């Protein structure tokens, strides 16, 4: 079976970054984003900065859709995965693996 690099790029085959509550804010390499964030432990974000805060969930706005809420003070359970396009991640508590994409 042939390898589909387009799908791999969309799901973080270009690398990953680990962060925990003691880390500084993490950022993907220039020109890239984090497309998937997996919670290693129960996690609360200080700042989850979206590439477009009117499209993707983040800590300052509700992202796309109508009548949503931002992620301020939301606890994500260990094992959860969220998908989007983020340019910076900072944690209040917990730990994550963030996957890099174009």
Largest sheet: 6 strands, antiparallel
- The tally of helices reads 1
* Spatial shape: globular
Percent of residues in helices comes to under 10%
Strand order, main sheet: write it out: 1-6-2-5-3-4
Secondary structure: number of strands: 6
Q: Provide the domain count.
A: 1
Q: Terminal Cα separation, in Å?
A: 24 Å
- Structural class assignment: mainly beta
From the alpha-carbon coordinates, what is the Rg to the nearest angstrom? 13 Å
Mean pLDDT: 89
Topology diagram in text:
Layout: H1 5-10, E1 16-20, E2 33-39, E3 43-50, E4 75-76, E5 81-93, E6 95-101
List keywords for this structure.
102 residues, mainly beta, 1 helix, 6% helix
Textual characterization of the structure:
- The chain is globular, with a radius of gyration of 13 Å.
- The protein has one domain.
- 6% of the residues lie in helices and 41% in strands.
- The protein has one helix spanning 5-10; strands spanning 16-20, 33-39, 43-50, 75-76, 81-93, 95-101.
- With 102 residues, the protein is mostly beta strands.
- Strands 1-6-2-5-3-4 form a 6-stranded antiparallel sheet, with no helix packed on it.
- It starts with a helix and ends with a strand.
Question: What would a concise description of this structure say?
Answer:
By secondary structure, the chain is mainly β. Helix content is 6%, strand content 41%.
């Amino acid at each position: 079976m042939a390898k589909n690099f387009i799908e791999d790029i969309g799901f973080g085959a270009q690398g990953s970054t680990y962060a925990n509550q003691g880390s500084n804010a993490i950022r993907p390499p220039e020109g890239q984003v984090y497309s998937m964030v997996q919670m290693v432990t129960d996690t609360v974000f200080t700042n989850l900065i979206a590439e477009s805060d009117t499209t993707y969930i983040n800590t300052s706005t509700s992202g796309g859709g109508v009548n949503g809420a931002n992620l301020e003070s939301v606890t994500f359970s260990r094992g959860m995965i969220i998908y989007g396009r983020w340019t910076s991640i900072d944690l209040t508590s917990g730990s994550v693996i963030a996957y890099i994409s174009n």
